[in-house]
Amino acid sequence: MANKQSEQKLQESICQYIDLQYPNVIYTSDLSGCNVGGFYGRKNKKTRCKNFKIPDLLIFHPNDFHKGLFIEIKNKISDVYNKNGTFKKSNDNHVEKQYKTIVQLRKLGYAADFVFGLENAISVIKSHINNEYPF
Question: I need a labelling partner for 71 at 20 to 30 A (CA). Which of 22, 83, 97, 120 fits?
């Protein structure tokens, strides 16, 4: 739970950065990972995508290379990969499902990837918005 909580704080920091540096950029965050109970929890579950894990942050700003930028936020690279470069295993294959979504989004013309920490996230966002090819 602590890791999820710190990912939430990291996401908040990334959103604050976008608000300050790029006030005209449209973005939103996916709420699927939020633990919302009751009416809103049921509503959220009924209305989210069932076949793909939507990335944490969706930036609807195109550049010369991509239609927009979608990123899955992680605190550190070891949250996703083992030392040998393979995906970390979990009971529900969560990371593999996230990667499946990233691959599909790339096929559809979006920039999509994992980001690790605030510095990496800022670098990827800055590259995308400045019309560079970050991936």
Answer: 83
